[in-house]
Amino acid sequence: MASLEQAISRRLIQETPNALVVIDTDQRICYANPPAERIFGYAQGELLDQPLDLLLPPESRKAHREHIQRFLASEDRTRSMGERGEIRGLHADGTPFPAEATITRLEWEGSTYLVALLNDRSSARELEAERQRLAEILESTPDLVGIADPEGNVVYRNKSARDLLASPLSERDPRPHVQAAHPKEDGQRVLNEAFPEARETGFWEGENTFLNGDGNHVPVSQIIRAHYDGNGEVAYFSTIARDLRPYREAEHRLHILFAALDQAADMVWITDNQGVVEYVNPAFEAVTGFAAEAAKGHKVGALMKSGHHDQDFYARMWGQLLQGQPYRDVFTNRTRDGQEVHIDETISPVRDSDGKVTHFIATGRDISERLVLEDRLRQLAYYDPLTGLPNRTHFEEQLAHSLSRAERSGHSLALLMLDLDRFKDLNDSLGHPTGDELLVQVGHRLREAVRSSDLVARLGGDEFVILLDPVAGEEGVIRVAETLLQALEPRFDIQGTAFHTHISIGISLFPADAEDTSTLLQQADTALFEAKGAGGHSYRFFSPRHTQAATDRFQVEHGLHQALAEEACEPFFQPLVRLPTGAIIGVEALVRCRFPDSGEWIPPGRFISVAERTGLIHQLGAGVLKQACQAFRDWWAKGYSLERLAVNLSPIQLTRRGFSTQVAAILEETGVAPGWLELEITEEAVLWDEEIALEELEALAELGVVIALDDFGKGYSSPANLQQLPVSRMKIDRAFIQGVDHDPGNRTILRGLLGFAEGFRCRITAEGIERPEEAAYLRGLGIQEGQGFLYAHPLRAHELERTFLAGD
Asked: Cα(617)–Cα(304) distance, rounded to whole angstroms?
């Protein structure tokens, strides 16, 4: 073998970077040079007398043996391996690698050998893959990339450059000059300024202008780099340019936006997602007294905190904002000089492309003067200037509203008319100032003696009136009357003079005595006359208590028990109508009971108050809700796609913890989605037990149930109280709908109510529509939804389906 080695050039064997392997006709290795041992991963001499298969992957060995045998059988002297595909070698550690090889026949001393010259292609493939990746990156980048020779002839442009420029590379003009891509002056600038600077310093950077395919100027930010050969001469120039048009358009829009913000009459400020101020406009500075530089870097809450809002207020605000929802409320803030201002604020979250809240933008308007004016007007219109109590106008409006609500729900009211005994004598003897002070103190004691939900008013002179809403029978009224008499027992101290006075009380009851405002007032006044005629310092009911009234109440309670036991209470349904089209979009469920003794359907006014007083309202309410949901789900199953089911709630139902859980269970059992259900409450819903009622209402709202405010416009709750309720719909009381097409007073009130509802961002439903003219006027105001006898009286489920849903 030594002589064989001498036959091969030692220089070629030792210094070639390629592997050289000699095999015999049995395909066993006779020789492997050092590069072969290094490439395949074997020690010196380790490959001698080993089969060639050792250097081949198992799946390739058979094909290689057959290929070599065909080569030996041929007359060829040399043949390239891998003519039909890439060949692969096998490292000593078992990993294959790509290769290319040439085999040569060698005859020596009567024997035939094959000399294989092999090259490892791993590095070449990696370089090619890297080149391909770089090419793909260049072709996909939105920036313009180009390469030019030292004379400025373009040799490469990426896709972005080819798409934009007026001189694309083509067979006709394969090497256009860089000047062709620019307006004349800018092309000269590239040759006379950019290229020389890049030759000297390595790069040039600046703004420039290209010409697009339409000949329009395209401003760009451009970098030109020089690349040198081994002799330090420029081999080529490369450039990267970015189209500045989107940035300049964005700058222009931003300039307009901030100019508009700076000139806006409303306050505008922008914070980061932690509430730290980054921008305020001049209106903000003017209202708060904080200059922009003083406000920046501070949290708005800390900057203007007044102490009027508790932690729950801010927790609700941040909870809503961090969920990506806008938040609106009236904030009481403090200016830089310590004055309080009331700001109607709307705070909106700003999201980035990933949907993450990064900033908040807030707008606000100082409504302090408006609130003061509204309060003064309301005070003058609705309150007695001497005692500060509601006046006759306020009282009569509230009484009418309470009567409407009581008629619908079936609970009782009591009206107490009060008069000071011998007030005229005191007033004449001590003078009007003393008399006025006495009236003030009497009003205060009366207010302290009743519940916060009851209404105390001064009608004029020494005449006061109290509305008890609700009342639990005559016994409860008697207790209140006796409490009032006792409240005036202690002496009064006025201007150093101590004296006693007493009151007389006349009482009328709804619905026992009358069902309208004027009659109730008249009857209470009659009863007051009787109390004063009896010597004063006493109370009288309009009519004496009699056995028949008690018997009637017992019979109602007994009948209600039987009706519930026999499942004889069910919902009747009144359609909710889309006013512009007349289409039925939902129903309101109204409970009726069939008492076994009479066999007739009894309206709620006869039994709701008894149900509330006895606690049966919980069983009744749950049963009616479940039946209404079942009927609603059955209609959906039949293809009647109603949008909403409205059900009235009694305030008593909200006094029991777990009511919201009960509603959730009924919805799950009947398969009605929470968003389909609308529960109607009145403004007094939280007066029985405010803490529990608010908790249950919030839980229902979180469940997805819609909360509607019924009889909207007839209550006397303040906006602050209404703001506690999670309502999203307001139902305008029928008192303001009747005759609205020709009654200027109702028109004015209705527009005010619509503005009020818009301020609370609530949808509107008009109740009690009875005439086509009323419906037409409401449509003209943009009210979308209503109900009333014009469309249908309450019907049983199958009657509603047959009459309206099935189209019969």
From this structure: 48
